[in-house]
Amino acid sequence: MRDDIVENYLKAMKDTIFRTWKTDSVSKRVENMQLVIADRTKAGKLPRLTVDADSDYLPSRKLTNANGQFEPDRWRMVIRADLVERNSVSKENAMAFPGTLFHETRHSEQRFNVLRYVEPNGWRFPGVNAPKHAVNLARPPNSDSAARIQAKYMELDGHGALK
Fold this sequence. Notes:
This protein is mainly alpha-helical and 163 residues long. It has 6 helices and 3 strands.
């Protein structure tokens, strides 16, 4: 990755998130993370990625061994709530946040690249589900929908010949 992109990303993290951390509410902190991620995804022509803390998760689903995760079915990034809820950011967490946000954004990019490949062909690999806005962005303009392509394929014997 180009150094200027990483440098701009880190600057945005510092300016948008950490500058006002102590005075921001938890929801404002998450909103600021969303702003930084939105800039990165827009620059990469990726679907809008939402950011949430895992505070609404059941205890059994809360993140314990990771700072965050990408959920492709909802096209969102979830950050451990206990990290966002702290009023001070340790040096360790200040180093972890940029990496976590960047890492999970890369997962969304990887999943989107799969969609870009499979959607125009009408293929659906198991587990390649995504919200409509991501699928529509992956589909080339004026292309058949995946369902119509699959229906056309079902009319053939699998080798391009009619049954």
